Amino acid sequence: MKINHILKTILYKYYFILALALVCFIGFLDYITGWELQFFIFYLLPIGIIVWFGGLFLGILVSLISIFTWYSIDIFTRHQHASVYIFIWNGGIRFIVFVTVAFFIFKIRSYQKTYKDFVDFIIHDLRVPLSTIYAAVKNLEDFTSLDKKQKEILTICKIASQRGITLVNSILDFSRLESKKMPLDIKNINLDAGITSAIEMVSVYANNQKVKLEKHLESLPKDFYTDYSLLLRILVNLLSNAIKASANGCIVSICVTGVEGNVIFNVIDEGKGFPRLATSRLFRKFNQFHEKEKDGMLGSGLGLVFCKLAIEELGGSIKIESQENKGTKVTFSIPNKNFPRSVTCP
């Protein structure tokens, strides 16, 4: 907590210095152009920056410095006012405008933060009931004698609750991944076991969609250091996307190869694919390439974005090759954190 406080203090200092530099630059432009051109509106730029990043107090302080700068420019340019009261009145009005704008920017920033915290709180609390539902459904499968129709209903509930948990976890981690503040638990993992676990997690969904899963492993490193949980979620997301895009009877393959201290993952499907023009939109939030899934449900449009951010956080890279109506191949590389070299996707 103390380190975070120090870092925030340093950042605020830099924003304050930037704001002061802008005030001085605007004051210089005001000086060389003379009083005929009104430059006071541009002082709102540094005020807005410091309020957004540093808070209302620093915004008011920069407002006072801006007014002082304007007063100084007027004095240096020897601009004559009919009365000293006009001089004071103009400064007072500008200060009121500056502080009012600073207050509104501060309130917008506060509402934005409150809204984000509120949404994060709700999403975080959704994880508990979803996990409870998932556990209850599994218990019903294990301890109850069910007919075929009842098993189908439980399977749908199991898939929906599992996907809900994955979505909630992804949303919670988006802001941390985007700000590079995601805590990583780097340790030596069993890659084969991790890949098998990811396949097992989507096997119910695959069976329900009548899609076959295949695994091909080659030259896996004996010791591989990465964040097991994050890698598992990447694989589950990509496998789920591949299953979603595949028709009945299609095959989804995961091929994994060790290459010079890195591991290259390929998730390949024989599904719908997408047109070449869609490439630029691949990693946009809430972007959806297909109208609906086979079960009539829309996807969240967050899976690929989360995967890209998570892979980059692990030091890797990702690319996608696809042909419409022929399938998609997602390739990503993850470096061994205990190995001095890394490569990008071939």
Overview of the molecule:
This protein is of the alpha+beta class. The chain folds into two domains: 2-113, no CATH class; 186-335, Heat Shock Protein 90 (2-Layer Sandwich). 59% of the residues lie in helices and 14% in strands. It is built from eight helices and seven strands; from the N terminus they run αααααβαββαββαββ. It has helices at residues 2-33, 44-54, 56-76, 84-143, 148-178, 191-209, 228-245, 303-313; strands at 186-189, 212-218, 224-227, 251-259, 262-269, 317-323, 327-335. The strands form two sheets. The protein has a five-stranded mixed beta sheet, with helices on one face. A hairpin with a 2-residue loop joins strand 4 and strand 5 (262-269). Helix 4 (84-143) packs antiparallel against helix 5 (148-178) and helix 5 (148-178) packs across helix 8 (303-313). It is elongated, with a radius of gyration of 28 Å. Residues 1-7 and 292-298 have low confidence and may be disordered.
Describe the secondary structure blueprint for this structure:
Layout: H1 2-33, H2 44-54, H3 56-76, H4 84-143, H5 148-178, E1 186-189, H6 191-209, E2 212-218, E3 224-227, H7 228-245, E4 251-259, E5 262-269, H8 303-313, E6 317-323, E7 327-335
Parallel strand pairs: 2-4
Antiparallel strand pairs: 1-3, 4-5, 5-7, 6-7
Helix pairs in contact: 1-2, 1-3, 2-3, 2-4, 3-4, 4-5, 5-6, 5-8, 6-7, 7-8
